[in-house]
Amino acid sequence: MARSYRGLLVLTVIAGLGILAAAVLALIVAPNAAGLTPNEMYAQRIIYFHVPCAWLSMLAFGVTMAGSIGYLVSGRRRWDNLAVSSAEIGIAFTLAAIASGSIWAKPAWNTWWTWDPRLTTYTIVLLLYIAYFMLRSAMEDPARRARFAAVYGIFAFISVPITFFSIRWWKTIHPVLVANSQNTENWGLSAHMRPVFFFSLAAFTLFYVVLLLHRLRLEDTKEQVDEVKEGLGY
Amino acid sequence: MSFFNAVVAIVWKDIRAELRTKDIFSSMFVFALLAVIIFNFAFELRVPDMKMVAPGIIWVAITFAGTLGLNRAFVIEQDKGSLAGLLLAPIDRSAIYFGKMLSSLLFMVIVEIILLPLVMVFFNLPLLTWQQLLVLLLGTYGFAAVGTVFSGMAVNTRAREVLLPILLFPVVLPVLIAGVKMTGALLDGEPFSSLTNWLRLILVYDVAFTIVAYLTFGFVVEE
Questions:
Q1: CB proximity A167 to B under 8 Å
Q2: Which of A192, A212, B106, B182 lies 20 to 30 Å from B195 when distance is taken between CA atoms?
């Protein structure tokens, strides 16, 4: 236990340094984007933060689904711990992605919010996992809570791509701002931006792994406390 | 008892129970009608043509009324302890799922068949066509397929009925979007063939979630 904890501490420090380095690279080293007004140029740097957050939220909810399937197949508490830990981190990254996207959208689209497919899908994803935690908190029995949450975790993650496509088609009939958002897809990244971007992506992914390990450790500790309490006749 | 017979027996049980009390059907229908009327007042003064909002009104009314019906489907099983009886029966757990799902679907479809002519009369719209009914059926199926699983979960929580819409609406959103789009396109006189994309989407949804529900329902009713 102590040794694995020391390993986790080392990993945590590395992840923290990685995030710091990513911030320095993104704000100072990365070249300016071409053909933008100054405001848009500053806002464009959010890509090094926004895209990793969005990617991690999806990874996190994917891990939640994997944990859910694992729990239903094996019935072991550890899988449920993995699912709930990852879902919590996923919600944090979803909020970060929505907030950073909104900050970027103001200079780029001249509005904080639009019912663009991606934005709408993310809102729904956020609601899905808020519902996931509401479901969890509405039950006392840990075994039932784990089972129901696992079922919901699977349903929720499968619905995400279907929701995304349905919203995309829904909007293509009124292509007001979608055209803009598709432009950002085509912007691409210049050769000098790419290393910074991928470094940032790697740093954030490591950050997620560290958070997940800490969160799992917390869950383990919680179980130990419960056991000790039970032993003492609480 | 074969799988098919078990499913039919459960659907028949629900129909007979419903024929005696008429609880679910009457509350669903009156609720859907009230929703349509409330929407009428909410929109009428600002919308130049009710054709613009009618698809949304129909689908929201169906969604809300359907949630009401899905809740009752498991509350009655739980309160009278008949779910325990079903679980003790020597049948597959998924037969219980398909039985409950089909009876919920049936009640919703009956409500829709009565509601649609009324909406047609209220808003002077040509709604009663086989294309509209097919679209409604496909959407309602997806709604019932997912809703039956979530309803089985919601009744076992502290919040009970309150939780079902919160669990269900975000997952069922593609059905609502596709349904509103298709009903609207048909109302605008577009040919049925122009809906292929949406039909495909809703079919993928229906098939995918039927499979997931089939695989997971056993965990929901397990004690």
A1: yes
A2: B106
Question: CA B183 to CA B53: how far, in whole Å?
Answer: 11
pLDDT digits (tens, 9 = 90+) for A122-131: 889 999 999 9
Is residue A168 helix, strand or coil? helix
Q: CB atoms < 10 A from the CB of A27, how many?
A: 13
Instruction: Say whether B170 and A151 touch across the interface (CB within 8 A).
Output: no
Q: Distance between CA atoms of B113 and B62, rounded to whole angstroms?
A: 11
Contacts of B169 in chain A (CB under 8 A): 127
Place of tokens 């701002």: A177
Contact A50, A101 (CB under 8 A): yes
Nearest-CA distance from A6 to chain B in Å? 39
Interchain contact B216–A (C-beta under 8 A)? yes
Q: Where would I find the H helices in chain A?
A: 2-24, 38-44, 47-74, 77-109, 117-137, 142-172, 178-187, 193-231
Domain that holds residue B80: 3-221
Residue from A231, A109, A110, A233 nearest A181 by CA: A109
* ipTM entry: 0.90
Is the four-CA dihedral A148, A150, A151, A152 of positive or negative sign?
positive
Contacting residues for A234 by C-beta, under 8 A, at least 6 apart: none
Q: What is the Cα–Cα distance from B111 to A97, expressed in whole angstroms?
A: 42
| A112 HSE (CA, 13 A, CB side) | 2
- Sort A225 into a burial class: Cβ within 10 Å, 0-12 / 13-18 / 19+: exposed
DSSP string, A121-153: HHHHHHHHHHHHHHHHHT---HHHHHHHHHHHH
CB contact under 8 A, B157 and A138: yes
Chain A residues closer than 8 Å to B163 by CB? 134-135, 138
**Number of domains, chain B:** 1
Q: Kindly give the parts of chain B with pLDDT less than 70.
A: 45
A138 in reach of chain B (CB within 8 A): yes
Whole-model pTM: value is 0.88
Question: Do B167 and A148 count as a contact with CB atoms less than 8 A apart?
Answer: no
| Nearest alpha carbon to residue B187 among B137, B108, B119, B104 | B119
DSSP state of B119: H
Q: Does A163 touch chain B (CB under 8 A)?
A: yes
